[in-house]
Amino acid sequence: MSEQFLSAENVNGKGGAGELGDLLVRYLERLEVDYVFGVPGGAIEPLLNALARSEQRGGPRCVISRHETGAAFMADGYHSATGKLGVCFATTGPGVTNLITGVASAYANHVPLLAITAQTALTTFGRGALQESSCTGINALSFFESITLYNSLVSHPDQLEHKLAAAIITAHRYPQGPVHLSIPIDILKTAANRQPQFANLPRLVASGQIYDPLAFEEFFRLLTTSRKTVFVLGDEAAEAVEAMLEVASWLDIPLIVTPHGKGLVDPCHPLFRGVVGFAGHGTAIETLCDPDVDLVVAFGSRLGEWASNAWDRVALLNSRLVHVATSADFFIGSPMARLHLQGSTGLILQKVLGRLDAEARPRRWLPERVAELTARREYGFKLDDPLACSDDRSPILPQRLMTELPRLFPPSTRYVADSGNSFAWAVHYLHPHDYQSQARSGRNNRVFKATFDFASMGWAIGSAVGIALGVQGTPVVCITGDGSYLMASQEITVAIQEKLPVIYLILNDAAYGMVKHGQRLTEAERTGFDLPRIDFAAMARSMGVDGYVIESVDDLLALDMHHICHRAGPSLLDVRIDGEAKPPIDLRTRVLSKGR
After folding, report:
1. Residue 1: inside a domain
2. What gap in Å lies between CA 56 and CA 385, rounded to an integer?
3. pTM as predicted
4. Closest Cα to residue 183, out of 1, 23, 62, 26?
5. pLDDT tens for residues 175-231?
6. Phi, psi dihedrals of residue 128, rounded to the nearest 5°
7. Which helix (H) or strand (E) holds 498?
8. How far apart are the C-alpha atoms of 538 and 531, rounded to whole Å?
9. Which domain holds residue 364?
10. Residue 594: helix, strand or coil by DSSP?
11. Last residue of a domain, one of 340, 375, 410
């Protein structure tokens, strides 16, 4: 946050190569972390020095964001693309407070993230030091108490390694989440010419393969005796997609995803029935409400408002439900379930497959038949307004735009959608088809990601940078609104500096679109949603970014996609959408109406 380096604690020079900051970075190197995201400042300078020395030897390096919240969002995106720990930092005072929204978002979305913030020197605590954020100033530690799983001040050099190891191990426990260390500048600059004591830290953070054997036996009995079963996948099921698809194909089980799990299953898979919950598909609800269905298995979802179709007791939250999750914390949302099975989803499904094979049950769907039907690119679910997906009118309809994107961009493209109408349109109408990628388990194979629950505006703008760094050379499409872009557009300059092929696609309707349509649907006063009409393409070109104005389908189809996807730097599509098109946000407005 601060650009000054004249505070009293900086008079001792640049520091040597054997400081505690270097020891901290060596731990990150052992965890195979490639990038650390943040904004420089006087008190955090020893960490930047350590990262500069690390970069020279091919270790983790620093990526400078333009705002600390953006740094946390980038670390979030980097984790989602690689599965590695996301790491971000901030200096004292305003740097710390700017970081809070990004850390809170990681907490709500269970992202393992290490936040490192600086303090002025210990000897200055309580003396009114510049940007002091100790317990005697603006108490930074207290800010993080409710949004982290581990939160501690390193007040002595001998504490660093133990607290760092505790923080990193905690971040990777289930449910995962962010952790925070606050480190005074004099601690970071302490001499430390040694190797990490916790040499086996990477093994300590590896998730254990555990499960409840008694509950598993009951689950297997229910699964193999049910009349008709439906699987519902949340984002925590990402580790087990391959096994999930095999079990579903073996037993002929329809597949549904929550908004959080969108992108885990190829939309053209013959057993896929769409998204349940926010911006979801009617087919998903019809599948769940089929009277023949006597077992619904939800994997890796907290079943909150947006994943449970606003706590729908008819379709989902009832006695047909079996809830499977790695952490018992997830079961708080399903007290009515007939069975709770805690354990690793991947291990549980592998054991199911082993038992099915041992019992010589006939496979309902042969792999080659699944592959054949998936390749036809036909959906087994229905869209709210399929005619709009082929409508050529101008300004372009968001439904048509979302439909065209997978046709324009290569199959390996990653998509991220921002808070607001952006993720509503994307959840319902954007269906990337990359069967080869999605047939493999793992979070880093997901072709679509959005932020739900905490739903920070601007999350996708920073996250896209982190994802692009994690999947080098792969196009990343960031779908965002004009409101979100006006809030966080500065992060596009990081994509410029890092030469990343990020395509910023702005849904430009000169409004906070979800606010506008939400007020209409809930019959609220119509106020506070207007935005000025901005030429975002011109803004982009002023920075050296290729900027395009899209007002029609013809404009979209005329783009040189090979150039856009392969240029060493970002592009921006200023898409002038039809602002009167009604987004699929009925579920959210229904909840708001009940609140009134």
Report:
1. no
2. 54
3. 0.91
4. 23
5. 899 999 999 999 999 998 788 888 788 887 875 668 889 999 999 999 999 999 999
6. 75, 35
7. helix 492-498
8. 17
9. 213-375
10. helix
11. 375
